[in-house]
Amino acid sequence: MNRHIIDLFAGPGGWSEGLRRLGHTDIGLEIDTAACATRAAAGHHTIRTDVAAYPTAPLTGKVFGLIASPPCQTFSAAGLRAGSDDIALCHQTLDDLAAGRDTRTVLRPACADPRSLLAVEPLRYALDTRPDWVALEEVPAVEPLFAHIARILRGVGYSTWVGILNAADYGIPQTRRRAFLLASATRLISPPDPTHAATAEPESLFGPGRAAWVTMADALSLPVSDVITRGEHHSGGNRFTTAGPAWALTGRSRSWTLRVGSRPSATRRPANAPAPTLLFGHSMNDVSWLDDNGAPIRRLNVREASVLQDFPSEYPWAGSRTKQFEQIGNAVPPGLAAAVLRSVLEPAHLPLAVAA
User: Do both 144 and 63 map to the same domain?
Assistant: First the structure.
């Protein structure tokens, strides 16, 4: 029987692109029409469905790995954070699922934001399908829920790790901080080793030091690679280069500043630093380049946002401009996804039986 990697709330393909870099593929479960169209154009398999309504029984015995990035708006600092009022209900639902009781439909009406309970879906799938490994990602505010899920998974035989990772520490040109949960039923789990640091480190007796964080200017000025979009086919397709001299930052533009937000306290970063966490949605039009004097030059464009989120510049984003930026801002940077997934996919850790 074939076993698959299942990606819940798959979005436009951040985890999928990370898996592709490691030589693996997944099947995404996603309800958003634009995200599904993006995934199709990028060649990622997708089932268009509501993750919370999808039955787990057909997946029993067929899941090798489980990935999930539940929608974060309800918990995000950039949103209304209604989810903070629902944390107790989320914890209760997790305990109920661990005890074999599915109380989601009973507790959801009591939530300030019904999306809050989407954060418990990964545990439902994990307990029902028992994958070899699990990898979850969310905004830092969800870390206590991840710790709760980890305790439950340890109780049924998984090794787990929960913590906050900064994308810039893994070569992504953005200081995006997110909570992660990693779990494995077959090996001891530890977080991925950082490859980059705020300042380049010298070589030591233990080997080369970490490289300096990748800046926006570096990321936007240099070709990265080609991307091939194949749709549902396994050959052919279109090849796009990520080199874009018409939009790349060169010369004087390296002294620009990126502003995220419209308030006086909005985050500003010079182009010779990584970007701050890219926030779009209602603030999409407030992510702009400023000149040396702080005067607005123009908005960040889709190609630039794509590269700063570690996607190819010509990644086939589908939907309206608003939907494209929304997908970019919500996606896991593929390079960070790849670094995290190595912890559960590559045989660098001792099997649990041997470690014991």
Answer: yes
Q: Are 114 and 256 found together in one domain?
A: no
- Global pTM reads 0.87
User: What are the pLDDT digits (tens) for 232-277?
Assistant: 334 443 333 444 434 556 666 778 999 998 788 889 999 999 999 9
149 closest CA partner among 70, 62, 77: 70
Strands 63-68 and 45-48: unpaired
DSSP letter string, 328-345: HHHSPPHHHHHHHHHHHH
Q: Is residue 210 part of a domain?
A: no
- Alpha-carbon span 236 to 86, nearest angstrom: 48
Contacts of 356 (CB under 8 A, 6+ apart): none
Instruction: Compute the Cα dihedral for 43, 49, 50, 55 and give only its sign.
Output: negative
- Within 8 A by CB and 6+ apart from 341, the residues are 15, 18, 19, 22, 24, 135
Q: Which two tokens stand for residue 80?
A: 């209304």
What's the domain count of the chain? 2
Angle at alpha carbon of residue 352, lines to 350 and 355, rounded to 5°: 65
- What is the Cα–Cα distance from 234 to 255, expressed in whole angstroms? 43
Instruction: Report the CATH number at residue 72.
Output: 3.40.50.150
- Which H, E and C letters describe 183-209, residue by residue? EECCCCCCCCCCCEECCCCCCECCECC
Residues with Cβ within 8 Å of residue 252, at least 6 apart in sequence = none
Parent domain of 244? 216-330
Same domain, yes or no: 42 and 66 = yes
Annotate 192-215 with b (16+ C-beta within 10 A) or e (fewer). Answer: beeebeeeeeeeeeeeeebeebbb
Asked whether the beta carbons of 25 and 67 are under 8 A apart, the reply is: no
